[in-house]
Amino acid sequence: MKNRSNNECKMNEKPPAGRPSTSAESTALKSPSDDDLRVACYCEENAWRVVYRHLNGCCDNRHWKYYIVFISNNHRACPMFMQRAIPIDAPTEYVCWDYHVIVMRSTVQSNDNRPIVSEVLDIDTWITPYPTPLSQYLDESFPHASDPNFNEQYLPLFNVVKADEFIRDFYSDRMHMYKDGKWNSPPPTYSPIMNGLKIDSNDGQERNELTGSNLDSYISMSGEGKCVFTLAEMHARSKASNKKEWTEWSAI
Fold it and tell me: Which residue among 34, 41, 43, 227 is the active-site one?
């Protein structure tokens, strides 16, 4: 296996001049498809806009409950296959992310005995179909997990968050991607997502003038009240005939 680390996103570019005139919300709703929302190396914003688009009229979501899933581990070094950061014709190569973020949706509980079906919406993967059945996504993204010689410390953990809460609470000024006067990867052209940053409405600041981020609180796999699953638990949960929502399950 060849590792293409997330450092391959790095480019020598300056912060964009001027003030973006569009928002994450407006670009999500105007987009003709989920795939058109993709900005390389900004998976948390990709997931935010995909789920915002789904929850605000792009499709019939009455039969689905949506979640945001942060994928990482305690070492923040998580190998993943079939990511679009590597060529589609290189199936034996992988990217080692410090974290990755996807959208997951599950069918709404019903009164009959049908199990809950879960699907993944990841616009940063080559895996098809889209949306992808959860079990298939796990198998193709983490095939190395079945290797007895693989170091288990680098297996993924999954922090599952309710989508509506993530849309409401998340904020990031993207400065985690700006180091030593350079962008690690060109930032989105729309304004930073700062919805979750609580500010005084009379202070006169616009959203793209605000600073700060709570991204790290989602990447961390520890903390009270979090719903964190191992890869084995995700597999078991995807196949279980049950009616529990993902966030009703106990955190590890």
Answer: 43
